[in-house]
Amino acid sequence: MGQWFMSNILQGKEEYFTLIQKYSHYQSVGRMIEYNQIKGKGGERAVSEYVLELKGITKIFPGVKALDNVNLEVQRGEIHALIGENGAGKSTLMNVLSGQYPYGSYTGTVTYEGEECKFKNLNDSEAKGIVIIHQELALIPLLSIGENMFLGNEIKNKSGSIDWDRTYSEAEKHMAQVGLHESAQTLIKDIGTGKQQLVEIAKAFSKKVKLLILDEPTSSLNDEDAKMLLDLLMEFKKNGLTSIIITHKLNEIIYCADRCTIIRDGTTIETLTKGVDDLSEDRIIKGMVGRSMDDRYPTRKHNVSKEVMLEVKDWTVHHPLYPEKIVDNKINCKVHKGEVVGFSGLQGAGRTEFAMSVFGKSYGSNISGELYIKGEKVNLKNPHDAIRHGLAYVTEDRKTNGLILGESIRFNTTLARLSKVCEKGVVNTDMEVHLADEMTKEMGTKTPSNEQKIGNLSGGNQQKALLGKWMFTEPDILILDEPTRGIDVGAKYDIYCLINKMVEDGKSVIMISSEMPELLGMCDRIYVMSEGRLAGEFTAEEATQERIMASIMQEQNKK
């Protein structure tokens, strides 16, 4: 049918006008190809099936070629996944497309809806209907949903002042499009992360989005909220919206993407199509890292000692702003030497709050209970006390609370224990450089120099640098809060190897993770938390996803 259809178009026959109506949307292996009419000499012809074409994109930063002749073709009305390891160039490519890296700062061409685009800034791309939502949501917590949605694009009345009635009514209209049932006057700080993500998408609709780009949209969402978001994208697709999604969660790609393009080391490797190519997790990983990974969780010798390194008894934590609210209620747990202990639970279960409160009471109020380190009862009044007693806490939010992005790797590495590089209160720079270099090598952080600003590193290398910062304190007990969030499978494997090395060296690890396969693959024991309480405890042999979820639901049903 396709050859006959095209031949008639080229011959300019009158039947074309009937055919263009009948086959204006032609389904092919689960994707939509739209043919438009373009007048040309000798009759009508069809435009490219691609709504977006990036050809030969090359982007060079000082000393680094971030993109090297990258090509990307996106079909109209599809969900297209862009995947690759941290530092592969995915976000850089999207910044080129959106105009954040303006025309002239790269080579190659950006063609959108058949027209070559030379975007100078984000406003240029948004005027064409291209909207990008970054991993770090661009929302102001103390402003309302409506204020955030039209910030910089305010709706004004004839007198030039903001028309608040229209602002909130328009906001709620776009909120309804994404299934967000809140008042537009609700403050951003008063809604959860999942709803904040919906606000960003509603904000995109207020800009008349045609091509939606989402960079790690589910990295901070639980499984339920993530599925709701992906289902929403698939619903938008039915109405003709084109989406590009960047994610490290391979199961999400298999669930919602029509095609995926793999980038490795700044170069396009291949594009895989659902229903035509093998779109399995193993196949995607092979394309990303250049090799198959038969076992995503490295094996280790389980040398768990009977010695208890950390024990918590009847640990109760109240909310710091609302003291009447109990966040963690009578938690009892212990961690042995050489053991990886996991903490599982849904978002809001109280895991992070528990970890931070143990780490020198850095969260909470009216904290009660008993804490023992190596059998000795301790009262850790602040993080400095915790570090002195061999405790370290690697935060889930590396960019806000974990690292100073504008400073060097060297500066960040030694920050948590400056006493190791000080003489009489003055930093010995030579010693600091030497010890920071050693830690960078031990962590396997990829960087041209330790003087590199840490904000210029990929997500995976930032995570390794954060881990190195706390390993520099020489801890006996390391609390890892979502240690692999937002990083690719290759970087995850490297982190897992580092965890294994720690416990093989006799250290103890507490691992908080929202990814149950990760906990099942790495932990000797798993505690399950639900609504601030311990809902269950499983050994590695006993633990399954079904048992963990059953214990969570059982605890919730008690209320």
Instruction: Assess the beta-strand content as a share of residues.
Output: 25-35%
Q: Going across the major beta sheet, what is the strand order?
A: 10-11-12-7-13-14
Q: How is the main sheet built?
A: 6 strands, mixed
Distance between the termini: 61 Å
The low-pLDDT segments are: 1-47
Bin the helical content. Answer: 25-40%
The pLDDT mean sits at: 85
Structural class per helix/strand content? alpha/beta
What's the tally of helices?
19
The shape is globular
Write the SSE topology:
Layout: H1 2-11, H2 15-22, E1 25-28, E2 31-34, E3 37-40, E4 43-46, E5 50-61, E6 64-75, E7 79-83, H3 90-98, E8 107-112, E9 115-117, H4 122-127, E10 130-133, H5 145-149, H6 164-177, H7 193-206, E11 211-215, H8 223-238, E12 242-246, H9 250-256, E13 259-264, E14 267-273, H10 281-289, E15 308-318, E16 326-336, E17 340-344, H11 351-358, E18 365-373, E19 376-378, H12 383-388, E20 391-394, H13 398-402, H14 409-414, E21 422-423, E22 426-427, H15 429-443, H16 459-471, E23 477-481, H17 489-504, E24 508-512, H18 516-522, E25 525-530, E26 533-539, H19 545-557
